[in-house]
Specification:
Length: about 350
């Protein structure tokens, strides 16, 4: 890391991974946990208008989530803390649209943090830049929303939830890149959690609204492609797989940066991020395919996360767990829990 002309922490140009990227690459394999308001609305994306009372989990079994990740040979988990609807899975003092006002007011981030410590698993967090509920998120730029985000990110990153090894940003396509003030956000996070690796979805491509064009999909990456969302420590475009000879060097403002890639893949076929009434009817992503992708990614010094959405009881679906364990057996990475409580 280095400082820019404003004294803010930013990325250091490099053609080799830095020490924090090397640690990220060693983590290899993790679990994505999509859970929140959408779980109770049968929707992948909701519009932030649902009442807090719609969020009604019967429990939060974070220990089961992390225990499963441990047994499946994973080294980290990433939790959706706030999706595009704006509902927060922690008690944020900057909004009423959070677990504080729900019937089940369990701080999910805290529960997961404690389970991660118990099982020796690293914790990462997802945070949607786009927010359908917050009044300061408007079509025109409102500096109040940047303050809102920075306040919430401070709550998540100030140490109350322990070390956060990864921060996964989403929804950036709703505004032009400069309107997000990425430099301020990056600086804030790095000062609170220096080792945290920051990724912004749709990382590579030319600036603009919406998705980058086909040329910049992961299968088409080329060395020295432009970084669309800068600064980012690693590349994202869910749920696509990168090319077998994945390049690592990308450019911004005439400088070159080394950036690994993290693939996301759903336990069920298609865009099956959140649990729904029909979730368990969807076919599995075959364990053989997950294993094949894992081998390719790890050989490239890249990472993979498999999405495992908890159901309305706050538990992972057993058939999803079985499929994940089958993958771990194929890869020879399944762990035993003899040293941990059941």
């Amino acid at each position: 890391m280095t400082s820019d002309v404003n004294g803010r922490i930013t990325m250091t140009p490099a053609v080799e991974p830095n020490e924090m990227q090397k640690e990220q690459i060693k983590r290899k394999y993790g679990m994505f946990l999509h859970f929140g308001m959408n779980t109770f609305l049968n929707q992948e994306w909701s519009d932030g208008k649902a009442l807090v009372t719609h969020y009604q989990p019967k429990g939060i079994d974070a220990r089961q989530w992390v225990r499963t990740a441990y047994e499946a040979g994973m080294n980290f988990v990433i939790l959706i803390t706030k999706h595009h609807d704006g509902f927060c899975l922690w008690d944020s003092k900057y909004t009423d649209y959070c677990i504080r006002n729900a019937d089940c007011n369990i701080d999910v981030v805290k529960e997961l943090s404690e389970a991660c410590k118990e099982y020796g698993i690293n914790l990462g967090l997802y945070y949607s830049l786009w927010d359908e509920h917050e009044a300061t998120f408007t079509e025109d730029f409102d500096p109040g929303y940047i303050t809102y985000m920075k306040n919430q990110l401070t709550e998540l990153m100030d140490g109350r939830y322990g070390e956060i090894i990864e921060l996964w940003f989403d929804g950036a396509w709703k505004k032009l890149c400069p309107e997000w003030h990425y430099d301020e956000i990056y600086d804030l996070v790095k000062k609170l959690q220096p080792s945290c690796q920051i990724g912004i979805n749709h990382t590579i491509g030319t600036p603009g609204l919406g998705d980058p064009d086909e040329r910049y999909m992961p299968k088409n990456y080329q060395n020295y492609d432009p970084i669309r969302n800068f600064p980012s420590d690693f590349r994202l475009w869910d749920p696509h797989l990168c090319r077998p000879d994945d390049p690592k060097l990308y450019t911004h403002d005439g400088k070159t940066y080394y950036m690994p890639f993290e693939q996301t893949i759903c336990s069920r076929e298609g865009f099956s991020w959140f649990y729904s009434d029909t979730y368990e009817e969807k076919p599995f992503t075959k364990s053989e395919y997950i294993a094949e992708c894992y081998r390719q990614l790890v050989a490239q010094d890249n990472l993979m996360v498999v999405n495992m959405p908890p159901n309305r009881e706050g538990k992972l679906v057993q058939s999803d767990i079985d499929n994940l364990y089958q993958c771990a057996e194929l890869l020879g990475i399944k762990r035993r829990l003899s040293n941990f409580p059941s």
